[in-house]
Design a protein that fits this description.
By secondary structure, the chain is of the alpha/beta class. The protein has 7 helices and 12 strands. The longest helix has 11 residues, at 113-123. The protein is globular, with a radius of gyration of 17 Å. The structure holds cytidine-5'-triphosphate and magnesium ion. Cytidine-5'-triphosphate binds at residues 8-15, 22-23, 52, 79-83, 86, 105-107, 205, 207.
Length: 219
Amino acid sequence: MTVWAVLVAAGRGERLGEDRPKAFARLGELPLLAEPLRRLDESGWVDEIVVVAPPEWEEPAILLAEEIGASKVSACVSGGATRTESVRAGVAEVPEDAAVIVVHDAARPLLPEDALERVIGALGEGFDGAIPGLPVVDTVKRVRDGAVVETVARDGLVTVQTPQAFVAPVLRVALAGRDGSDCASLVEAQGGRVKVVPGDERLLKVTTRADLERVTAWL
Ligand code: CTP
Ligand code: MG
């Protein structure tokens, strides 16, 4: 069973506000991208990796992979205008014989090995996909024009992270449809069964400067 990882790193990082894409913002000594790439490369669950780089940053991404000795990188491609477009570009590089595709946000650099184990392991139970989720702790309200419309019952709600693992052909079919904010929503839209496994606070997505500082402290 071959497991391919698609590492999406093609976003612009507008909310981080640096002079370069978020994947190349400093995290410790190296560009942020180095951390999730090294972790995927060292993972016992991952066989091959496709890196989806920001347009015009493919070359620096390849050099970085060489610098850290990431030997599982099979391809580095340029991303698209949306996250889903970038995933499509990455999945297009995955050969037909791949059994499982794991999609991970480079913006979540601190990828724990056991998170990969949980999502990939769940596919063995007959699910089409598996995603990490964390229970919602705050009260959730629907708001319109600054006024509360509804307080949403919190039980049963989770916030979801990556890595997200899928049976490869199921993800390919799902990507032929509309865009979504994550890959699982595309699979769900096709009637696929997606399991939620425990998430991890360390999978925090770096969005702002404060997130980058938090992740740096956890390195
Ligand atoms: N991503 C991507 N291609 C895009 C948009 C996003 O590969 N066109 C990736 C990002 O690189 C990131 C992940 O999807 O790893 C989640 O996106 P997000 O956190 O929103 O990152 P950015 O889009 O870069 O940040 P911002 O929205 O602040 O510009
Ligand atoms: Mg974005």
